[in-house]
Amino acid sequence: MKPLRMCMVCRQRKEKQDLIRIAYQKERGAEIDHSKTMPGRGAYLCKTGDCIAQAQKRKALERAFSDSVNPAVYEHLMQTAKGADDES
Ligand SMILES: [Zn+2]
Questions:
Q1: Ligand 1 centroid to 74 CA: how many Å?
Q2: Ranges of each domain in the chain
């Protein structure tokens, strides 16, 4: 069994490769963890524009990390989702 992680928006459990990890450290703030090995707290989102748009709308990352999140993080998430869509 591969480990499953839960998308913080739709709460579906998926394999790590189908999700984007966002890492949070107090000093650095939230950032996209492309390597999936960054230290700090992690949150997962589907690689779909829908879940990312919902996360932004509901401030899901802000709530998960109890801190403000740079809007650029959401922009990069959107770009990552678009890239994933192009591949399929
Ligand atoms: Zn999702």
A1: 14
A2: 4-87
Supply the CATH classification number for the domain 4-87.
Answer: 3.30.1230.10
Between the CA of 83 and the centroid of ligand 1 the distance, in Å, is: 16
Sequence-distant (≥ 6) Cβ neighbours of residue 71 within 8 angstroms? none
Distance, CA 61 to ligand 1 centroid (Å)?
Answer: 13
> pTM (2 decimals)?
0.88
Output the tens digit of pLDDT for each of the chain's 88 residues.
788 999 999 999 999 989 999 999 999 999 999 998 999 999 999 999 999 999 999 999 999 999 999 999 999 999 988 887 665 5
Identify the burial level of 45 via C-beta atoms within 10 angstroms of its C-beta, where 0-12 means exposed, 13-18 middle and 19 or more buried: buried
